[in-house]
Amino acid sequence: MKIYLALLLTVIFSAASIAPSFGAGERFALVIGNTKYPDAEAGLLKEPINDARDVAEQLRRGGFTVDIGENLTGDGMRRAFERLYGKVKPGSVALIFFSGFGVQSSRQSYMIPVDASIWTEPDVRRDGFSLETVLSELNSRGAAVKIVLIDASRRNPFERRFRSYSAGLAPVIAPGGTLVMYSTALSSVVPDKISEQGLFVRELLKEIRAPEVLASEALQRVRTVVIRASRSEQVPWISDSLTENFFFLAKAPLPGSNPTPPAALPPVVAQPLPQPPTPPEIAAAPIQKPAVVTQVPSINPEKRVALVIGNSAYRNVARLPNPQHDAATVAAALRQVGFQSVMLQTDLGLEKTLQALRDFARAADGSDWAVVYFAGHGIEVGGVNYLIPVDAALTSDRDVSLEAIALDQVLTVIARASKLRVVILDACRNNPFDSQMKRTVALRAVSRGLARVEPNDNTIVAYAAKHGETASDGDSSNSPFTAALVKNLQTPGLEIRRLFDTVRDDVMDLTDRRQQPFSYGSVTARQNFYFLAPKS
Predict the structure, then answer these.
(1) Rounded Cα gap, residues 307 and 358, in angstroms
(2) Burial readout 338-354 (b: 16 or more C-beta within 10 A, e: otherwise)
(3) At what angle do helices 74-87 and 131-140 cross, to 10 degrees?
(4) Which of 234, 81, 219 lies closest to 153, judged by CA?
(5) Contact criterion met (CB below 8 Å) for 187 and 170
(6) In the chain, what are the domains?
(7) The 145-151 sheet, strands edge to edge
(8) Contact 407, 461 (CB under 8 A)
(9) pLDDT in 10s for each residue of the chain, 536 residues
């Protein structure tokens, strides 16, 4: 009996040693290349179908079951997504590659089918496919790893029809276990001359062919090479919340072997489309030049940690549109400039806010830099500043200290960082609780905006608006303050004192001088501090 058992174990371990190990469970991919947009002013795109075929072939070699669609209509894309949803089982891997036109609307990114008839921004939400909705559905089906690769940051082909619009794609609020990559930075587009060269997909194919490279590392390599090759004109964006190791290709093939990929599913090709009816005459809106964010990745030996909170879904006052997306944008930017730990939290009540601060205090202890970013409602009562959780009611001024978080508590949390401590508050909005708040103490003033502060040495506190003033949410995916902050903290060689001065100038330009950010505190003159170090 012992001999049989030994033989059985030998067979099992031998089989395990030669079995491919890709990470996670079964692998399913949906690859879409859309080129023929008859209703778009840009017309025919050159690259997407060939790119989609190349990506699909490589994914099959990596063990994916691939469904590829070319020039898909809205119905075709809907059926393709439904097929993918139907295959996904708990523990499996789901990957989406989309090349075509992508448009952001109401702070979400949409993949556009070829028959979309878009004349107003609501048409984007009607005809497009929301990236967040797709990820949510995959997550609900139990996918352990969700990967989305979007090569759609082209100039919005419908832009002249909109009264106003935001260029490029918006940050995605993704569930855990998700890896998302855009071909360029948020709210930016790939310059035409670079787009025609297919730089992003070319480098993507190189990296996903590399055996035994973690997916997160592979995409960071793509980003690095694209930035260098484009001389920072194209800066891919990555959002990474994977919770397990995953490889596009786990093991290299043996010398002389010629692995046969799984049988290919035939491409789904759309039928010729009828031309859309001639629309009524619409006046062309002024075209805004898309923002181009300059980024050069660098390895920073310092330990830098951040806590990023975005509170949008307030329960007792109106919802704020921007903070969730502002927080996601800031968190992604901090990761990309080299922060080793970024804790992103959204819509926190009081208890969860306190727990997040406790957890972050442990990370901040012994760090070189500790940064806290908060977007949401803030309030000053009696000269004390508070950050407001989403479950606060604040029916009385004496409730504030019980239901909100004092700024001093936040400063205490980061006090043990050895070199630099930064608190950034995009929270200087009009106080929505003021009209319902009962005053119990005559001298307890409730003021507009936040009060000025005097932090300790090597500590900076930055407000979206000067003390006693209020800030704007703006009309685009991010508030004016956060948009300027992200742009500047990703600029190489911008020292932190000058950085906040530049943010102030940019916001004043964006708001016609109606909003003036302000920073308080001081840092030593004996050392320069950079979010992103100067180019060597």
Answers:
(1) 11
(2) bbebbebbbbbebeebe
(3) 20
(4) 234
(5) yes
(6) 21-253+264-269 (3.40.50.1460), 304-522 (3.40.50.1460)
(7) 237-240, 178-182, 145-151, 93-99, 27-33, 65-70, 268-269
(8) yes
(9) 445 445 444 444 443 333 333 445 799 999 999 988 876 555 578 889 999 999 999 999 999 999 999 999 999 999 999 999 999 999 999 999 999 988 888 778 899 999 988 877 788 889 999 998 999 899 989 999 999 999 986 766 666 555 445 567 877 777 778 899 999 877 777 765 555 558 899 999 999 999 888 998 899 899 889 888 888 788 888 888 777 889 998 765 444 444 444 444 445 444 444 444 444 443 333 333 333 333 334 445 789 999 999 999 999 998 888 899 999 999 999 998 999 999 999 999 999 999 999 999 989 988 999 999 999 999 888 778 899 999 999 888 778 888 999 898 899 899 889 999 999 999 876 677 877 777 665 434 455 578 888 888 899 999 998 766 777 666 666 888 998 999 999 889 999 999 999 999 988 888 888 888 989 888 888 889 999 988 76
Q: Is 431 helix (H, G, I), strand (E, B) or coil?
A: coil
Strands (E), 34-154: 65-70, 93-99, 102-105, 108-111, 129-130, 145-151
Q: Which two tokens stand for residue 162?
A: 């909109």
- Size of the chain, expressed as the number of residues it contains: 536
CA distances from 464 to 291, 405, 491 (A): 20, 18, 19
Can you read off the two tokens belonging to residue 513? 């001088």
| Burial zone of 448 (CB within 10 Å; 0-12 exposed, 13-18 middle, 19+ buried) | middle
CA dist 469 and 135 (Å) reads 39
Neighbours of 400 (CB within 10 A): 22
Greatest pairwise CA separation for the chain in angstroms:
88
The reported pTM is 0.52
Structure-token pair, residue 8: 């059985």
